[in-house]
Each structure stands twice: as C-alpha cells, then as structure tokens.
Amino acid sequence: MAKYKIEHDRDGCIGCGACVSTCGKNWEMKDDGKSKPKKTSIDDKDFQCNMDAAKACPVNVIHIIDEKGKKMI
Ligand code: SF4
Predict the structure, then answer these.
(1) What CATH number is attached to the domain comprising 54?
(2) How many domains does the chain have?
(3) Ligand 1 mean position to 4 CA, how many Å?
(4) Is the pTM of this model over 0.90?
(5) Fewer Cβ within 10 Å of end Cβ, the chain: N or C?
C-alpha cells in the first residue's frame, strides 16, 4: 500500500541526473532533459531509495510527503 507521495517540482529541475543515478528504479530522464519519477505513490520498500534521491538533488526539487501529509524532505 502506498504510504508516501513523491512531489517533483519539474520547473526547478536542472536535469543533473543525480536522482536517476541514485534511484534509477524510480527516476528516469525524459526527452526535455529533466527527470521524472516513474511512480509518485510509494511504499516502505521504495522509501529509502527515493529519500536518497531527494537528498542528492542539488536544487531540492524532490519532496516526499508522508501519509499524514507532512513533508519529510
Ligand atoms: S537530482 Fe534534482 S535537479 Fe537533478 S535531475 Fe533529479 S530532480 Fe532534477
């Protein structure tokens, strides 16, 4: 069951690819040179990978929201 939501502010994405390098199972580069999450609802097994991607993002445009609506990053 999905417990967390991924928010990605694509306007601010600089296309560095760090999220894809860090968590390729849920992040991919698109034709416009910016990344995109494959899934925006994730559960515990995908949490750490996406959290690592969010921490790796140099412009902090990846956010993870918990089931209570609290922004974790
Ligand atoms: S790490 Fe951040 S800036 Fe870099 S591609 Fe991913 S979302 Fe975009």
Answers:
(1) 3.30.70.20
(2) 1
(3) 19
(4) yes
(5) N
The one-digit pLDDT tens for each residue of the chain (73 residues) are: 689 999 999 999 999 999 999 999 999 999 999 999 999 999 999 999 999 999 999 999 999 999 999 999 9
Give the pLDDT score at 2.
82
Q: Is 19 in the pocket of ligand 1 (CB under 6 A)?
A: yes
**Nearest of 1, 50, 5 to residue 25 by alpha carbon:** 50
Specify the DSSP element, H or E, that contains 8: strand 4-8
Does residue 12 line the site of ligand 1, with CB under 6 A? no
Q: Which atom of ligand 1 is nearest to the CA of 18?
A: 1
